[in-house]
């Protein structure tokens, strides 16, 4: 619409057809004419009455410019552009006019801040370290971030995504540290989004990934401000969205998804042990059931005689082949997990524990599954929970099924074929143009200090080379104000 021909007063009266839109005109004659309008659910009543109406109803006549000068609020603007007025009203602004047929309008922010207070992390909980997590408020999240990085180099760029939701999205980076190519790539992809609603960073991440067909996440979601602050100092960027309690960080390689940030608050010996344990648990979770199917179907010679006799006795009365047995138990575990996640927390915990015990015991006693497989499935489920990030844990849960089908098809050979295809996919995958398997491919020996193990902080003189930061030194550096 051409802003020169739009009648603002008429447009406001059209909006008044909504029952939650308040439009008031003062035509008493005692005070000069004025009109005021706003969406009632978006307004803070105290701000409206004490900081706007109080000055609007003072004796004497005020011009729009005079009122603009005396209002004790910072977010205000005099405009005749209907697009700006409409956007302000939809975001908790109050619109004031002093003449009945004019486009000149004062818009003042009186938005009510509704949301959670800062709470401890729920998904990435840690025993040691900070106990603050992001919330759904963009301003609060930026406050948590700037509190940890009180330097002028921290830059933010605000964008709007979603044709209907118009969600505020901010990309954060350290100027002079972060590779500008990564930041510009992220900005271009966000600005190119053409979709009606984008409500959370989890939706945004899929829209800006290099390969949306891949099952592997290509940006890391976190609820921890300390993790985002650390990523920025390494030369990565972060994306924060209003209404989302998680921030995105990138670019990230595969290894980042298996690093719990609590590792950096523990002694490096302990942290390295748990990190290695985590990697081994993930590998076990993916292939354990498939190896069971392959051995019991094709490769009995791969196990020793004492263990073989135990395995044969456990399967003596099982009417199903190993493939069906393993598939049914895997799906049962997934059903229990989904049921526990969708029910209220206390009921969900009871369903998960009691359901697992009852169903497992009944299945063994009814000779529907072997106790060996039941133990393997249980250990695989426990191992999958060691993954610190939720999206990667769901990926691992799904990856087990191709391996099980391949093991039924060709035994160990099938497992190796699926593993080869998986490796080829990971070798070709990129995130913001950066290889997904660095520092292992391309090989970066110096960056292995913080991959499978965590070295002491004295062994980190530079930022990871694969991030190609503008500033590489991590010691004896001073950030100068520009």
TrEMBL record:
It comes from the Bacteria. InterPro entries: Spore_Ger, UPF0353/GerABKA_families. Keywords: Membrane, Transmembrane, Transmembrane helix. GO terms for cellular component: membrane. It holds the Pfam family GerA. The keyword Iron-sulfur does not apply. The chain crosses the membrane at residues 276-298, 372-391, 403-427. GO terms for biological process: spore germination. Belongs to the GerABKA family. This is Uncharacterized protein.
